[in-house]
Amino acid sequence: MTDTSSATPTTIVHWLDGKEWAGTSERTSPVFNPATGAVTKHVALASTADVDTIVGSARAAADEWRRVSLTRRVQVLFAFRELVSQHKEDLARLITAEHGKVFSDALGEVGRGLEVADFACGIPHLLKGGYSEGVSSGVDVYSIRQPVGVVAGITPFNFPAMVPMWMFPVAIACGNAFILKPSERDPSASMLLAELWQRAGLPDGVFSVVHGDKEAVDAILHHPDVAGVSFVGSTPIARYVYETAAEAGKRVQALGGAKNHMVVLPDADLDAAADAAVSAGYGSAGERCMAISVVVAVDPIGDALVDRIVDRIAGLKIADGAEADTDMGPVITAAHRDKIASYVGAGAEAGATLVVDGRTLGVDDRPDGFFIGPTLLDHVTTDMTVYTDEIFGPVLTVMRAASYDEAVRLINENLYGNGVALFTRDGGAARRFQFEVEAGMVGINVPIPVPMAYYSFGGWNQSLFGDTHMHGTEGVHFYTRGKVVTSRWPDPSETATGPDLGFPTHA
Prior knowledge:
The protein is of the alpha/beta class and 507 residues long. The chain has helices at 48-65, 70-86, 88-99, 103-120, 123-126, 162-173, 188-199, 214-222, 235-247, 270-282, 302-314, 334-349, 385-388, 404-412, 427-436, 472-478, and strands at 10-12, 14-16, 19-21, 28-33, 38-44, 131-136, 139-147, 150-154, 177-181, 207-209, 226-232, 251-255, 260-264, 292-298, 353-356, 375-378, 395-401, 416-417, 419-423, 441-444, 460-461, 464-465, 480-488. It has 2 domains: 10-256 and 463-484, Aldehyde Dehydrogenase, Chain A, domain 1, CATH 3.40.605; 260-444, Aldehyde Dehydrogenase, Chain A, domain 2 (3-Layer(aba) Sandwich), CATH 3.40.309. Helix content is 37%, strand content 22%. A 7-stranded mixed sheet has the order 15-16-17-14-13-19-20, sandwiched between helices. α7 links the parallel β9 (177-181) and β10 (207-209).
């Protein structure tokens, strides 16, 4: 892996055939430490020709890998899983240095990725088909699932280890070759993961990394030898990826943006709800697709809940994510920090009550870092941009609802449908909520309802383009194609009866 310890910025290159590869393009992009604002590395940006080279390698590798026994594939998966576990702190340090999230959060991200690797180690059971004996005289029917070939993952900056690991363990276990196009903002984790695959015994070409921008993405979306594309990012780009790849005849799962609501009913434990709102709203500086960005307080508990949230914000430590006991680090870039600040200003101008203004935050020993503090806006309405747009920052908005029905209607009328949460002591209300709410993932007294690896992750409405969610059994189905075999082995004592041009029946 590229040395990242030097004071002189190094260039992170691609991963091809089990080793680093510089490619042919001379274009690069800076990689920052968000806590200091300093450029620490550069990353190569692939050309279309570079993508062609990597896809060609993956195509050849996929043809061989699909012939490898399930037993051998699982052995490689187990070895990879163990190596990631051994190097989870190394991965977490790379994530903190390039993304800015606190070390414990980065470590938790790696742990969530490992859960999918654990799941993929069970691939022999997950790929079992069905068998029906004797559907007709001497005829048996059985189903099998086979890999699709070369698949690609285009992943976001906010989870540089976890989101790729939601994709490639399952894809590779199913017998595919996988090409990862990580975010150019925090690319180092992908290179360490590639190295760990190589050390685990994965054949060269089965896992590749191509760094790049729109040119690389478009090359993947249009390449005829890429059979499937998985994407996580904003809704506009998810729609573009889905439409472009689908038009090129590929299978696509494109997960988009979110505006996750947390409904707090009057009977809820307000202290627990306030803890959950602060944790889910400001963790990782709000740069999570499953972050709670809207708290819907059902009358009459709004003021009491806001007071509790304010008390908890006051106790948060905002600093370099590498420092011990830090609760929240910086956001990913200076431009993103400024965009978040502009949303806060627009919300206040539109009439929201600015209860806590994170724009005034200063971190004394990191004056050039990309910091913005936890922000709380109350009395937000549906016509404000702080509500309609995905801000993707540490901005928590509070809306008031007169009833449970109004709160659910508010959620269901939103364009997104990624995750929602309900806080209540009423089991009947909880059961009704999970039935009525229109979102892909629901938490009951759980603020961030990210499913375990053996369930699938995905939203509804404009939070998902395509019909397949990520990891879990839906992930296995996405990375494989079904095939049904109808087989006839007549008894040797039977004699031929001659041709029959009638429609075949199972008699």
